[in-house]
Design a protein that fits this description.
about 0% strand; mainly alpha; about 450 residues
Length: about 450
């Protein structure tokens, strides 16, 4: 396995506050503010159970990742833990497929942002999408610190919006209960807890799982921070708990106040809930918050894709020229490459939105699950081979049962995707990038063998 020692060292200019809010920014996005409408409409009020189960699964995965950060302080890149634990082949495949997911996110979030901006700026959506990518490209190549500051403030806006929403909705519920009219405060439960049965709640776990992903960005940003590995581990382990709390609590309050039949897929349930409470300004205010969330996720997507590509190049799994840093210690070439590919996907969305681009998006569906399953496998192998004695950082218990339960939970989500008519397409489409990455690794190994054989002949 290559160690990446030839690669230049990224500057550690990010502070702890940057790492914490960067991680929050990667998770709290349009998936919560808009995507939750799809989940609520499909499962009803009991979707809260789906969010809770998905949050617990991710909490365990992040705990594993946090412990690996402490045990291997020399590793900071997220996908490099799979490389260290499972070997070069899985590391190559997971690294490239993970890069693929975030590059597609660049295109998806830029289009979402362009659609929102189109209401104020009457330019074609594809032009606005390319413009938004260009702005985020500038932010990312200036310096890691610039990216960190941008993400810190945008993530702060999202967190503040959720906190304000929770306070407003809690006040609404208690005010109605105090006036002796509890049904007015909790009309969401009048049509039953599980209007579509328990099967919809189980299937909802797969739906909501993807909106919770992104917490692992903490370990990626940590490579450019001045915080210790133990602090990174605490951030990684505690972050998903706080995020799940945001998700579960806000969704719980929405389904209590808003009848699930009034939730329209694709329309922010936050907006509808606030309007239901009598706040006429909700639509405009939430549009700004959603735009902030989209731009924040786009910023994070470009950052993660560039750092993943940088790590791949450091291990000779991508062209060596991608490890070059600019004068501000930013991997400008990797950032530019991700921006160009994202822009190409936006163009594809304009030419073939219902076929080619739809396939690109669907082909990301199960990859994140495969990545998290690989993290659990890497954790199990690294812990088994660890020589740490008393005082070891390995604390997740009961071991190894908890690892098997977590892996089984992820496999369960994959099975649910296969059984779902809507999500099966995503599952099967996701195998295409994985197969391509496997073939690419096979070609890489073949090229290396041929190069070694040629060197032997020349030496003799």
């Amino acid at each position: 396995m290559t160690d990446g020692s030839h690669a230049p060292v990224l500057a550690r200019t990010l502070a702890r506050r940057h790492v914490e809010l960067i991680s929050l920014g990667g998770v709290i996005g349009a998936g919560l503010f808009v995507g939750s409408s799809v989940a609520i409409a499909a499962a009803g009020p009991a979707i809260v159970i789906s969010y809770t189960v998905a949050g617990l699964l991710l909490l365990l995965i992040m705990r594993m990742l946090g412990e690996m950060v402490i045990v291997r302080p020399d590793i900071r890149a997220f996908t490099d833990f799979v490389l260290a634990g499972l070997g070069e082949g899985p590391g190559f495949v997971i690294g490239w497929t993970y890069w693929y997911v975030w590059t597609v996110v660049v295109a998806v979030e830029s289009i979402a942002g362009a659609v929102l901006l189109h209401a104020w700026i009457p330019l074609p959506v594809w032009v606005m999408a390319l413009f938004v990518i260009g702005i985020m490209w500038c932010v990312n190549i200036l310096s890691p610190r610039t990216y960190g500051e941008f993400e810190f403030w945008f993530a702060s806006i999202k967190v503040a919006a959720i906190v304000a929403f929770v306070l407003a909705t809690v006040g609404f519920v208690f005010r109605n209960a105090h006036l002796g009219n509890p049904d007015a405060g909790l009309p969401g439960l009048q049509n039953g807890l599980m209007p579509h049965g328990p099967g919809a709640v189980v299937a909802g776990i797969a739906t909501v799982f993807f909106s919770l992903t992104g917490a692992e960005v903490a370990t990626i940003a940590a490579a450019e921070s001045n915080v210790s590995t133990r602090v990174v581990a605490r951030i990684a382990g505690g972050l998903i708990f706080r995020v799940a709390l945001f998700y579960v609590l806000s969704v719980l309050l929405m389904v209590l106040i808003l009848p699930w039949r009034e939730v329209i897929p694709g329309v922010s349930p936050f907006t509808v809930t606030l309007q239901h409470m009598g706040h006429a300004w909700a639509a405009g205010g939430m549009s700004l918050v959603i735009l902030t969330a989209v731009l924040s996720c786009l910023n994070s997507a470009l950052y993660v894709s560039s750092r993943t590509l940088f790590a791949l190049a450091a291990h000779h799994h991508a062209p060596n020229w991608l490890v070059t840093l600019n004068s501000r210690k930013a991997p400008a070439r990797a950032v530019t490459f991700g921006a160009v590919v994202g822009a190409a996907a936006v163009t594809l969305a304009t030419v073939s939105p219902n076929k080619a681009f739809a396939f690109l998006v669907n082909a990301t569906g199960a990859i994140v699950l495969l990545v998290y399953l690989s993290v659990a496998a890497a954790y199990l192998k690294m812990r088994r081979s660890s020589t740490n004695g008393v005082g070891s950082a390995w604390r997740l218990a009961p071991y190894p049962a908890i690892v098997y339960v977590t892996a089984a939970g992820v496999v369960f989500v994959l099975v649910e995707m296969a059984l779902s008519k809507e999500m099966a397409v995503q599952l099967y489409a996701s195998t295409v990038p994985v197969v391509i990455a496997c073939v690419a690794y096979g070609l890489l190994r073949r090229a290396r063998r041929q190069a070694r054989a040629g060197n032997l002949q020349n030496s003799t």
